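thought: fold this chain, then report.
action: predict
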Amino acid sequence: MNSNIHVQENSILFVNVDETTISDQDKFLLNNNSTYVYFFEITTKRASLGIILCLFSIATVFGNTLVIIAVIRERYLHTSTNYFVTSLAFADCLVGLVVMPFSAIYEVLEKHWLFTLDWCDIWHSLDVLFSTASILNLCVISVDRYWAIKDPFSYPTRMTRRLAILLIALVWLASSLISFPAIIWWRIVRSDNVPQNKCPFTVNLEYIIFSSSISFYLPLFVMVFTYYKIYREAIIQTKSLRIGEKQVMLASGELELTLRMHRGGSFPAESTSETLQDFGVGYTNFHNNRSMCSPSVRISKQYLFTANKNFSLSRKFAKFSKEKKAAKTLGIVMGVFIICWLPFFVVNLWSGFCARCIWREEIISGAVSWLGWINSGMNPVIYACWSRDFRRAFTRILCSCCPRRMRRRYQRAFRCKPNLV
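observation:
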């Protein structure tokens, strides 16, 4: 009887232990299944958001890669300004390749970070690095455009390839000093433990003020100042060219010469023709073989010889016009940059003073961050719309796999029109 009871007790104990083991396994599987179900429900509900963010990332990488390939392949794009544009495109491409995808995952999973805390800090530092490099490249481009439009003829001797490479190196060095050492700073000043599965950015006020000033506010001041000076210089030079120059057009209407006219003694048409030929400019009417310059045209001989020594009359206006159009294109780039990045840095600076004062801080911060990153994908679109050089290069690259007949048609279309930008 006792043995039976003992056996029964043992059997009962065995059953109890087995039930406990099964219960723990079920709980473990239930927790894992609930996690998977939770992620599945989130990704299903927010699939449209994930698709949109992924498209932004792909478009950013594709567009900026196209810019880099265009500058490398096309020799007419090998200019100092386009070296800066290539550096800008490289930074923007890395934003789309490294920063955007992880942020897209973080947003779709409702701020649930799947990776380690170390990678969280590295990811934030890479975000600061690439975004700052993009902004500083725009700042250098604005200074470069000011030098070019201030004095188009001395600009090529001043802005050498070596100087351009040096400025690009300084841009990336400054961006690196702001980003990577900041990881140590973040961890020293971090007072609270980071919640599990979260990836917050530092809220240290000193770092926010320092990084925002170097990454945005100082470059913004430089860009606004330089483009104001560009605008003023363009007005002054345009007025001087319009007031001091007249136009002489051939009878065929196909060629137009720009000559500076002065009051003074006239000289014969033969002398005029010789002087114009010294400039390498044809002036003859090929329809009736007679000169278009009559003896009544008054041209300062002294000015013509001075101009012959320094520059071609028609070339000066064309060069200034080209620099003016390039400055206009890059001015549009700067305007889009301000629209995209200003909200982020306002919210970022505000959060350093009073994070609780921002309504739905996580949503607002995510939205303004993506608005800033979208700027990285906008620059190639601006080049394609406003720059004929880049538009032609993009067409040649994208149509390289097209039939030969289609490529010839595009080449003829681009040869028909002058290259102005």
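thought: worth noting. Residues 1-30, 245-311, 416-421 have pLDDT under 50 and may be disordered.
final: tokens above.
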